[in-house]
Amino acid sequence: MANESSSRKVLLVDDDECIRALCEEALTIAGHQVSTAANGAEALDSLKEGYDLVVTDVNMPGLDGPALYRRALEQYPYLERRFVFMTGDDCNEVRAALNRADSIYLAKPFKIKELIDAVETAGAAGYEDFYARESRGKRSEQRFGLIGDCTVSSDTPGADIGAEILPAAIENVSRNGVMIRYAGEPLKKGDGLSISFGLERMGTVRRAKAVWSKRSGRKECIAGVRLVEPIPVYWILSALPQIDRAHNF
Prior knowledge:
Helices cover 30% and strands 31% of the residues. The protein has 249 residues and is an alpha/beta fold. It has 2 domains: 9-125, Rossmann fold; 148-237, predicted glycosyltransferase like domains (Thrombin, subunit H, Beta Barrel), CATH 2.40.10. Helix 2 runs parallel beside helix 3. 31% of the residues are buried.
C-alpha cells in the first residue's frame, strides 16, 4: 500500500465498466484516492476537482484519450506529464503518437503491477524536477512564493493572538507549512492556530502550530507555521501562474 507521500489522487477514465472497476479496485488497494469517469467529456468536467494524474483509455466514443489530454492541458498544464494511457490498439501510429507526447502507455491486457508502477511514475513526474530547479538554501522542503490573504485564529487556549480572527498575509507556501505576515505580537513556538486561505479557486482551512515568529517592524510580525494536514501538491502547482508560461511538465 502506498504511504502518505506516494498516495495520489487519480482520475480513472474508461468507457468499459469492467476495466474501470478492476483498475479502480487495484489502485485503491495500492493506497491511491481514485475517482472514475465513463468518458472524456465527463472526465474533463471532473478535473476541476483537482487531480495528481489521469489514467485514461485511448479509444473512447466522443472525446477520446488524446483529445482529453489536449483539452486538459489547456486548463491544467501541470498535468502534461501526468497522463497514463491504456490502449488495446496495436497500431504503430497510435503508439508513435504517445511516444512523441512523452506519455506513459499500457498495452492491454496489462498486469496490475504495471498499472501501479505507471501511476507511481506519472504521479511523481515534474515535482522533483521543479523542486530541483527552484530549491534554495538548506530547506528540506521547497517553498513557493504565493502571496495572498488569509485569516488566523487561535486553536488553543491562551495563544498570544487571542480568540479573535486575525487578518494576515501569506508570504510563501509549502506542502506542510506557510509563512505569514500580520500586525500584532510574535507567536510562541507551539501555539495552536487555525488558518483559512485560498489557492486558485480552492479554499481551505487548516489547523497548524507556530514554529517560529519574529518582528519585522514596529507593528508587524512574520511567523512560520506547520500545517497539521498537508496541502495537496497539485493545489500549489495549479496556483503558480509561472507554470503556464515557463515550465513544461
